[in-house]
């Protein structure tokens, strides 16, 4: 038996509100973390995951009351004095926070921030700090570390900032690393690099990792053990293979059923009914009972909260009826059936050689020094009733394309035709009339709704702007829209802050539908949502498309979501479409090396398949769009690049025998030419 690095026993965390009300956020959590293992903690927002991690490192605010025991390498954390906690954080534990932008000080050089903890703890001489920062940046694979160490956070990309934060957490060679949603905002390629980095550091140092995430694909491919939290408690824990093969808690089973998958497209998502419980409003008995398909309405579940008990195969479950969980028997997913093929219809939206260039001005006179080629020759057609998805890494031009189609950003060149008529050069009145037929759903439901207006006024606003509120039926029509998106008209008088994230997104969709548009531009509409709420919104979009005949331009970086909802997919890289085709052709027979890299990097919620899969690890960063490569933009990172690729830009064509259109001189199936890197095999925990 190896002693655990971290031992948590009966951890309870209460917060005192402004009214002195006590709210229990963590309610008796027990777990251990052993050397050389990765423990993933999963659950919906508000389940207590992050609070548990912060309590384990003594980082909770003063209004938190912590009870129980947290021992790190034998040292008790709860009740420890400030000096002990500071020494522990600098030497024993490294913490990787979700948002590297708020972790890094914007006015301090990155290299200095990475080593200041070591210098403060006396582990590193100040004169050696810069050299150590360069070494750390090199270890986390940041290119040109000698220069980067002296730069500031705003000069780093999102992936580089996250890698720098990981390097900072590992600087003192801690015995435990806690990573709180370290890949949530990252592209799949950068996510793959970050997860590979964490796994390699675990193998090299033996330091265990606590990984907090809601992405079950990440869990399947990285975890040794899993702890599932709900309502402030661990409701199931065990080896990752057992958790995914045969979940023994209805909540775990429901989470697994609600996620879209890369390898299944013919079944409807099965979301968890209702909303997650809040710590201030826990029901009596089992907290999951109101949403549970096994225990809902059963007297024992309504009156008695089940303890965490052994269910076999090293798995513990807090469920009275864990042996009654039904098998995965999701119904087939209905998809809108077009009455004609795209070739027999006129396109509803046609983008022709669209260019969007932004000027970079420098100097006292603000002369134009360069142009950022955000969109550089995009052509795309959308036919009535279909969903076309734009995918690619951050900065590739997806959102800029969508906003330019909507008229929110002026085009530099090319043309946009809606229903056969050009949208460029339209007068203000003409643009307003056209916008009645196309609407935008923004990524962030929190910032896209006016916080000082009721949701009824928010949804009614487009009707007032176009002067048709009374014409369409006023409040009665708004009530119909609410019912259409699964909200009650009784919510009319509420403000956005009174709604959950999924409900806010439904309000945004209702507002977009108010003018009865023919096209919706959906910009990452489910990226900020928990998996269960994400499933509700995706099902809603499916239903609305079938009922109203809507056409969707869907912008996303989650490839599982894209496969679930799309009819066709266009892959963008540095302002251009590099591959386009039907959903199945793109996912089953990708031809462009970039598409192949994206798909290989996407995590899949299957531990066994994940171990067998090989991944193409892209090296380097996306090139600067103000100074793109001379030839193919992807050539500096491409495993098939030739001399021709570095000097000549490939045209977009349909290669012989290829089911997709592709911009590549060497397009073709993945035939072993790629430098494939096996996903690191999980090492057995030292127990």
Key words describing this protein structure:
single chain, 687 residues, alpha/beta, 8-stranded mixed sheet, 24 helices, 26 strands, globular, disordered C terminus
Describe the structure in your own words.
The protein is of the alpha/beta class. The protein has a domain of 57 residues. The protein is 31% helix and 22% strand. The protein is built from 24 helices and 26 strands. The strands form 5 sheets. It has an 8-stranded mixed beta sheet, sandwiched between helices. An 8-stranded mixed beta sheet has the order 18-19-20-15-21-22-25-24, sandwiched between helices. A 4-stranded antiparallel beta sheet has the order 2-1-4-5, with helices on one face. Strand 7, helix 8 and strand 8 form a beta-alpha-beta unit. Helix 4 packs across helix 5, helix 7 packs parallel to helix 8 and helix 15 runs parallel beside helix 18. The C terminus is likely disordered.
What structural class should be given to the helix and strand makeup? Answer: alpha/beta
Radius of gyration computed on alpha carbons: 26 Å
Q: How widely separated are the two ends? A: 5 Å
Q: How does the overall form come out from the CA principal axes?
A: globular
Q: Count of DSSP helices?
A: 24
Show unreliable segments.
336-340, 676-687
Q: How many beta strands in the DSSP annotation?
A: 26
Q: How much of the sequence is in beta strands?
A: 15-25%
DSSP helix fraction = 25-40%
Mean pLDDT: 87
Largest sheet: 8 strands, mixed
